[in-house]
């Protein structure tokens, strides 16, 4: 499992990055979600890596 936390806002971000953040379930700065560690989630994280931090949780 991965804990994904939004660290920066989406002002000035590209549309695909905004959509990826919404798909991950992130809407506000400092909001966190826990997602399965799979290739789809890793791909979304790669798209918005500069906007989020990622931690592994059990």
TrEMBL record:
Annotated keywords: Ribonucleoprotein, Ribosomal protein
Name of the molecule in the record: Large ribosomal subunit protein uL30
Underlying gene: rpmD
Subunit (UniProt): Part of the 50S ribosomal subunit.
Family: Belongs to the universal ribosomal protein uL30 family.
GO cellular component: ribosome
Species of the source: Arcanobacterium hippocoleae
Record-linked Pfam families: Ribosomal_L30 (PF00327)
Stretches assigned to the Large ribosomal subunit protein uL30-like ferredoxin-like fold domain: 2-52
